[in-house]
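Researcher: I'd like a structural prediction for the single chain below. Treat it as a standalone chain; there are no partners to consider.
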Amino acid sequence: MSKHYAKKEKKPTNKKKIILPIIAAAVVVFGAVAGFLIYQFVFREPPHPEPEQIIADLNADESVSKLKIGGTYYDFNVTSPGINNDVVEDDVYKCDITIERTSEIYGIGPCLFSVNYVREGFEYKYRDATSNDEIKLIALKGVEVEKATKKATKAYKAAKFTEQKTDLEKGVDKLIFTVEDDEYEGSLTVAYKFDEFEGWKFYKINDKNVSFKKGVTHKEDGLYTNSNVKNILFLGIDSDSGVGRSDCMMLISVDSNTGKIKQTSFMRDNWFNIPGYGQNKLNAAYAFGGAELTKSTIEQTFGIKIDNYVATSFSTFKEVVNALGGVTVNISADEAGYINWQLGKNGQTGVGLVPYSGGNVRLNGQQALWLCRDRGGNGYSGNDFIRTARQRRVIQSIVSTYSNYTPSKILSVINTLKGSVKTDLTSKDFKWYAQRCTKFFGYKFAERCVPTDGEWQSGYSSGGAWIISLNNFPQLKSDIQTFIYEDLK
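Model: Treating it as a single chain, here is the predicted structure.
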């Protein structure tokens, strides 16, 4: 008997029954995830920034950690004692934090800052920090040597840093530099003062211990000269046409060996030998051959080298004084009366009268010109000798009035005026004097006239002109040489 196995019948699968649970499970998972995300993004508050993070963010914010003080940017390190008054408003986390800052040179603090973070998803991102506190600086250290060196080398190229003396308690910093080159030797100080709002501020350069290297007087082509004595002949011409006589002849000697500015006035009626023209009044030299002939006449007469000349007419003299803004001169009541008399006599009262009482008066160009021309008359006192003294006083007053000008301002004035005068000074020469004017302005004045009492007698030329004859010319010549070059003594 054979066995027969019965084939089991396969029941059909219900796919819907399988898919539906899967979909349901996915929906549940998705819903859970979505709910979680919604909770995280909408309902759950992200963790607030920790103090360490806030400090790190402030250190990275250059508006807080990088500040410009006295024209220089400094990097600061931000530190804080803690956070307070933190709130969340419209997805912005806000807190107040009192911070302090330090750099290599300065300290700042404490300052209250309001810090803002904007929520981005699961975290807060730093946005900005603001403060209404007034920044007050604390000096932790003196001025950077490099900054002071720029100041020193601008004044003297050979300046080399040697020492820094910082007094934080007094808010004073002094940096010492040595100077030595072909022209100068000594030491200078670059000084700074501390300001709690502006930091270390440049105060001044003290170069009183920097001096020109001593020059030795010697002869060149028969004339005495010295590298540290600059002789400039100043000429005042009695005409605006360019042709005339020099009524004012003043040798201005800038003596860096002794720290003096020496003024030597030469009377116009001195009877001298004019090269190529024979004996004549000194002021005739300009009419014969201009400034160059006047210069060579004085050189050969007194055996001194004149480096340069400056010649100005009446009009250009007024322009020079006006361009300088006037000059303050101490005048007497007699001189004030003379100035006003001449202004009225010549229809020039429109420029203004000076106080009849005199005193320290700011004179404009026209008023200063009448003072320089004042040799008396109409009851006012004076003569040619007194006039030269008045001219020297005006020059001294000009130097005094503008002694606080910086070299750059002096050079600017020179560039404005140099077209108004006749001179053999070059632009390089003008720059040289401007750069050294701060030292020259500190020199003392010495003055004399050629001749002075006892050195002359009046006479008349063959043509009947009144002239000045010198009594003992060899002695006078020697006196003038030693007045200008004191190492000849």
